[in-house]
Amino acid sequence: MSLTDKEYYNLSISISKALNNVEMPIKGKHVRAAIIGTFHSNGGHAFWAIAIRQPIQDNRIVAWKFCHLLHKILREGHPLCCQHSMRHRGMLLEAGKLWGHLNDGYGICIKHYTKLLVTKLEFHDRNPRIPGSLSLRQGDLEKIGEGDINIYFQLAVEIFDYLDDIVALQATIFNSITTFCVSSMTSPGQCRLAPLIPCIQDSNPLYDMLVRVMFKLHANLPSDLLTGHRQRFNTLFHQLRQFYGQSRALQYFVNLITVPKLPEAPPNFQQQSDLGNYQAPVVVMPDSDPTDNEPEPVVSNLIDTAEAAPPIPELPPQHNHQHDHHQQSSPVVPIAQVIELERLIQERDELVRHLQTETQRLSNHVKAITMEQRDVQSRMEEQLAALRAQLAQRHDELTNLRFQKEELELRAQTAPTLEQRAQAEEERAKASEEKFQKLKTMYTQIRDEHVNLLRQHGEISKQLATSTEAATEASRAKAELQHQLEELQQKQALVQNALQQSSNEARHEQEAISEQLQTMTQKCESLQSRYDEMEATRLAEIAELRVGMERLETEIQTFQQDRETLSTEKGSLEERLVEIQGEKDELALKYQECMSKIQALELKTEHYAKEEASLQQSVSATTQRTEELSEQIEHLRMEKCALEQKCSDLEAAKEAQEEEFRRNQEAELLRFDSMKTELSEQLTVLETTKDAVTEERQKTLEQLLLLQTEASQKQTDFESLVTDLKSVIEQKDHELEELNIKHRELEEKYQSLDANMERSVAEKEAIESDLQDLLHQQEETERRLKSTQMKIGELETALIDTRISGDTALRTLLEACIKSSEKLTVRAIGENEMPGAGGTPTYFLMIAEELQEVLTKLKMVHENYLKDNSTNVESLARKVIIGAHLLASAHVQGMTICNRSANIESGERIAEEIKKLGQSITSLFQALQKTSESDTVSERVTDLKSKLEQVTTMIVDLGKQTDGTENLGDMVETELSSMDKAIEEAAAQIQEMLSKSRASDSGIKLEVNEKILDACTNLMQAIRILVQKSRLLQSEVVSLGKGTASAKEFYKRNHQWTEGLISAAKSVAQGANFLVTAANKTVAGGAKHQLDLVVAAQEIAACTAQLVVASRVKAPRTSSNLTALGTASKNVTQATGIVVATAKDCSQRLEDSQDLDLGTLTVHQAKTKEMEIQVKVLELEQALQVERMRLASFRKKNYHQPAEE
């Protein structure tokens, strides 16, 4: 459905009115008209066609209102408006970039608003199922998501972007209001705040939608994946809550919208049970728009038709009413000085709030640093505890290693004893004594090396104990540092509390106190920087300690590796000792076998000796053998004693084994002694039984031969055993050499550990020296903190004194302002009771006289104010307020007199002088702001008084030149009454002439006279109706425009229009008289006076047209009286045409009846008649030319100066 021409015109008018350049909110009726226009045009094409022709890039107010209007249309307009607006995104972004360079408060706001609008368009383009109002019904969100979690994820991101733009726009608007000190109850403030209403309407459903989408995401996705979403939501939640709180606190939004309330804490999306407790916030809009106090017209007539068409630019009656009301209330002017003081107080409050936020930021920064320091300290404590545990573990491992080394040493000490036993067995078996000596020498060397290793191990243990003590001392120093840091933090917290208290108390102080607070803040920042430097130094020292501990840890790890190497070597040694022990056991078994065989041989020998007792040779041989055996035993005993003497030093730990071995040896010796005794006894027995044995001698000899063979075999086996033992001893020598090399390597490693321990001790001493430096710096910092606290106390005392004096001065000044304002208000109320007095030279003269006195007193008070060192503020404030009010009143009254003056040139001259007077007023107040320049203020006051006196003289002279505007109301009524009377008299005379013509004339002349007089009568009747309609329309205009004033006052204010009415009324009255005269001549004189009647009819028609135009100038376009006046004007025009046509027709008929009969004339008579006619034609042409020139001069004269009767 396309728009008709009328609808398109009405829509254009509504959008033009909505996007005017007046800094006030858009009227609701214009917005509704634009929204309804989108439904009439089925989209936004018609709106954009009109909107792009508006001066969006020429005026910032128009651009701001355009963004607001477009936002409302996208929300409440036709559903296709968003789709049709997508093509204009580039224009919106360009407008935002253009106005973004303007720093007057609107530029940045327009930039953010255009970005928000583009985001909204793109959001609805990507989500066509979501309407422009963002209101969803039950189940719509599930339809949009289509059960796909990816769609919900993307939708959440888009809602986040949308809400970010809304939050950015509202923050910019509130910053603009705060920066430029704009009140929300003024038109500029409301103009800036009005777009926040659709922002609140958009943000509320977006928040509800986002909460539900977040619950769905947490129900289907892991919590870690949505961490970024939760952080972003929490940020937006607090920003929206702050936005709603600020909007709810403004009085402007109380009657416009019910701002929703958000809970104290955001929902917990990780618990799906919170979805059941969730309540969506609600935005409530009232039914009526308080910004639009006018009655809302019907839909078909939404446009204000009182707006003038382009050819005749006029103001609507509402605007005139507001203008008149502004003229009436112009004497009540805001007090400039009070506004300046309020602005200064607001600036001071803003500065104090800024200081509070800065102090809070510093406090938060210090808290963050403290928390970070505590975290670092806790981590260091954990690391120290871990290092202590590792040191204890290493100490235990070293102790175990020492015990294992002692055990290995004992085993190593035991091994040579076994070897000596093996050597003893070898010596018994004719072993080599030299090998035993070599083994002894090697064992002695190994024992010395073990002793050295034990000493080194003792030294390392002592060094480890020293390092443990150093670590303990370092931990103790760290604890002391921690305690000192805590004390510093407490002192810093006290300083911060003092600063916070000072900033809170300085909230009501003046700019000088704010500067002191800034100085204090700078000192605190310097202290904070010093503290940060100390903290950085401490962290560096801790890092160095950490490096040292890591170095010790690496050394401990190296030592651990060495320990593990020693452990492996210990294991190999243990395995070798086990092998040696096995070999020793085998040798012991072989020795026992040998001893058993020897015993068996000895028994057999004794047996055989008993048997060979009879044989002396055998006995002697046996005795010799026994002696040899005794010598061998004796030799073995001596060797055993030597071995015991040698082993006594090596077997201190094995005394029990040695005693057992000794007991066994003694038992063997006793056994040998007993055997010797038994052999002696057996020899005696053998001597007695020699004879019995002789028989068996041969057999015994054979057995002896067999035994000799066996002995030789045993000797061979014993020699092979000795060879094997030698090879084993050589192998053990090689192994001992390898152990010696390894012991040397261990000695080198222990020496390196000793060097590392010495280096650790040196580092510990360096750390202790750094700690002493830190303690010294701490003492210096404490001393500076004490001095700073003393300064802070002094500043607090000064602040309290200054606050008391400032409060007293402000209270005195406030009372003076209130009293002066009360006087001015009472004066303004008294002036409003005499509305006719304003705008007159007499009233201006009265204000000027009073103003001269006030300026003289102001000059004196200012001089006294400077002499008293700015203490007497009250008198100066009173005089400044009263002087400002009187100056403003004089300025307004002077301009009113200039605007009302009929003498335009004099009015313009006075207006120029008043402008110069306004410049002098501005310079005076600028000089008053600089209180130190007394001479400047005196000069400004003198100059202002001279200019005021000059303006007063000119206005008094203008008042003497009376232009008759004082009696314009009476003149209008008089002229209109005269016009009515003239019309009535003319109609009566025409009726009288008609009656006379009917009585005296007959035939064609009677018929002609009747037609002419009837046409004149109809014309007069139409003129009478036109005059009546004009009177009704004038009454309507006066009643609508006068307000509380009288009709005469209205005529006086609009004197030009009134003079036009007077002139039109006079013209109509004269035209009526002229018509009556022409009609009388026509009736009496015949055809020669028909032209007089035509001219008279046209003249009176022109006069009525002048009356119509004069009446229609200020008439409302929707007035029924205006329509009736137009109809009456058309009727007058038609009646005039009828009169003209009738006059011409009647003239033709009369001329036809009076034609000459040329047939009765002679040639001479005919020629003479022709010449007479030519002469008359020439005369008439000449007379016509003369009359035309006279008419032109007459009109020119009447144009410059209206004709008077």
From TrEMBL:
Q: Which organism is it from?
A: Anopheles braziliensis
Q: Which CDD domains match?
A: ANTH_N_HIP1_like
All residue ranges annotated as the I/LWEQ domain in the record: 960-1202
Q: Where in the cell is it found?
A: Cytoplasm
Recorded hits in Gene3D superfamilies, A to Z, give: 1.20.5.1700, 1.20.5.340, 1.25.40.90, I/LWEQ domain
> Which keywords label this protein?
Actin-binding, Coiled coil, Cytoplasm
At the top level of its lineage, which domain of life is listed?
Answer: Eukaryota
Matching entries from PROSITE patterns are given as: ENTH (PS50942), I_LWEQ (PS50945)
The similarity comment for this entry is: Belongs to the SLA2 family.
The taxonomic lineage of its organism, from the top, reads: Eukaryota, Metazoa, Ecdysozoa, Arthropoda, Hexapoda
Region of interest called Disordered, as start-end residue ranges on this chain: 308-329
Q: Which Pfam families match?
A: ANTH, I_LWEQ
One GO term of the biological process aspect: clathrin coat assembly
Record's SUPFAM superfamilies?
ENTH/VHS domain, I/LWEQ domain, Myosin rod fragments
Entry protein name: Putative actin-binding protein
- Chain segments annotated as coiled-coil in the UniProt record: 341-696, 722-798
Any transmembrane segments, and where? Answer: none
Q: Which GO terms describe its cellular component?
A: clathrin-coated vesicle; cortical actin cytoskeleton
Describe the location of the ENTH domain by residue ranges.
3-131
An example of a GO molecular function for this protein is:
actin filament binding
